[in-house]
Amino acid sequence: MKVFLQLSILLFGAISIAQTPCENGMAGQYPCNGLDLSSRISLSTMNAGAGNDSWGWTDPQDGTEYAIMGLDNGTAFVDISDPVNPIYLGKLPAHNNQNSIWRDIKVYKDHAFIVSEASSHGMQVFDLTRLRNVNNAPVTFTEDAHYGGFGNCHNIVINEETGYAYAVGASSTNGGGPIFINIQNPLNPIFEGQFTGDNYCHDAQAVIYDGPDPDYQGREIFFGSNEDRVSIVDVTDKSNPIPISNGFYGSVDYTHQGWLTDDKKYFIIGDELDESTFGFNTRTIIFDVSDLDTPVVHFEYEAAVAAIDHNGYVVGNDFYLSSYRAGLRILDISDIENKNMVETKFFDTYPSSNSARFDGAWSVYPFFASGNIVISDIDRGLFLVRDPLLSVNDNTNLSFSIAPNPVKDVVTITSKTEPITSIEIFNVLGQKVIDANFSENLSENINVSNLQTGMYVLKINATTTKRLLIE
Question: Signal peptide span per the entry (predicted)?
Answer without folding.
Answer: 1-18
